[in-house]
Design a protein that fits this description.
alpha/beta; Rossmann fold; 6-stranded parallel sheet; two-stranded parallel sheet; 39% helix
């Protein structure tokens, strides 16, 4: 089976390449921005048509939430990458009878439901980034009637090993681990309750969904346990045995251009749940940070 992975040098893309390449039944073609521009319609159709993959996994995305909120130019880039890109890939997948896997976000929801959101709940994004991801979802779903085969996987608060790309960003746990060596006390926001997602687990779960021939559609894949930034930090410091003072503060203490959903737990009603966040943190700390 021939698999095309886009965004292959990113934090998630790198883990997808690793997990699929470890299985000899897959021929993995890994492309990043040096090989392809997913906003170039003609180029996408030609290059995908040339290699004729059986499965396309899109891990390429624009996720500079605050930048696109305060800059119209950045928002235009976000729309090209997060809306046009998935649309063009869906067309290429359909033209080559390939399955498309695309990742989206909890930010397609407004965060008003304290109980969280199931796969079929109505979306109502409250920032520009969320709107761009929402419309990217729509472009894929709109092709269902034509016969497109697709998995749309929503995730939240990604963390895991850093990808090879220069654009790959450190995650929340990387940042607080670094700050714990520089400061005696950390102020951490105790709001924005959601689930975290370990990219190592997400890559494995993506492979499992594809191999299980699960029904096409929307899936929520995250590690288990609802956390604010503050509660997640506390668990991380326990796992790492780091003694540091932590202070819970409101999000208003650190104003940001883009609004965030207050509650955005992605409830998984369709597939086997991933492990608890604490177990994932133990794995991440011991294998990548220690």
């Amino acid at each position: 089976m021939r698999i095309l992975i886009l965004g292959a040098k990113g934090n998630l893309g790198g883990q997808l390449v690793k997990v699929f390449s470890a299985d000899e039944k897959y021929e993995v073609i890994d492309w990043d921005k040096e090989e392809i521009d997913i906003t170039d319609h003609g180029l996408i159709l030609k290059k995908v048509g040339d290699i004729k993959p059986d499965l396309i996994i899109n891990a390429a995305a624009y996720n500079a939430v605050d930048k696109c909120e305060e800059s119209n130019a950045q928002y235009e880039i976000a729309k090209k990458v997060n809306i046009d890109g998935p649309k063009f890939l869906a067309e290429a997948a359909f033209a080559n009878d390939a399955i498309l896997v695309h990742y989206s976000t909890d930010y397609v929801f407004d965060g008003k439901n304290k109980k969280g959101y199931v796969e079929t709940d109505d979306q109502n994004p409250i920032n520009r980034y969320g709107k761009s991801k929402f419309h990217g979802e729509k472009r894929i779903i709109e092709m269902s009637g034509a016969g497109l085969k697709w998995y749309l996987i929503r995730v939240s608060k990604l963390f895991g090993p850093k990808g090879e790309s220069e654009a790959a960003k450190p995650n929340f746990f990387d940042l607080i681990f670094k700050l714990s060596k520089e400061k005696n006390e950390l102020e951490i926001v105790s709001e924005e309750k959601s689930f975290f997602t370990y990219t190592v687990d997400l890559a494995a779960a993506t492979k499992k969904i594809v191999e299980s021939n699960a029904g096409f559609g929307i899936y929520h894949l995250t590690n288990q346990g609802a956390y604010t930034w503050y509660s997640a930090a506390r668990d991380f410091f326990k796992v790492a045995d780091i003694k540091i003072k932590t202070k819970s503060v409101l999000a208003s203490k650190f104003p940001r251009p883009a609004k965030r959903p207050k509650y955005s737990m992605l409830l998984n009603t369709k597939t086997e749940p991933m492990r608890e966040l604490k177990e994932a943190l133990i794995d991440y700390y011991n294998n990548y940070l220690k």
